[in-house]
Amino acid sequence: MKLSGLISVVFAVAGLQANAADQALQAGKKLLESNCIHCHASSYGGDGSGIYTRDYRKVRSLSGLKAQVTSCNTMLNLKWFDDEEQQVVQYLNHTYYHF
């Protein structure tokens, strides 16, 4: 394969990966908005994002974020699959935590 062909393949794969990542973020956002925000907003006011940005937040690592999302999934009996939990973790990390 010529170098230009190989470069085209690399960019195509990178584009697919970026699209899949964007889709996962959007899916995580949708799950969060439809299942979590009403409780967070009633507890922290506004749009509920204060739970993620407060100085004394519980989540301090990516593994802690995953554990918290799993805990909420269980406590609220949301019945999310592992990939859905991961989408929420990805969205929260990308949007608020940046671990």
Automatic annotation (TrEMBL):
One of its GO terms (molecular function) is heme binding. Keywords: Heme, Iron, Metal-binding, Signal. Residues 1-20 form the signal peptide. The keyword Signal applies. It comes from the Bacteria. Residues 23-96 form the Cytochrome c domain. This is Cytochrome c. The lineage of its organism: Bacteria, Pseudomonadati, Pseudomonadota, Betaproteobacteria, Nitrosomonadales.
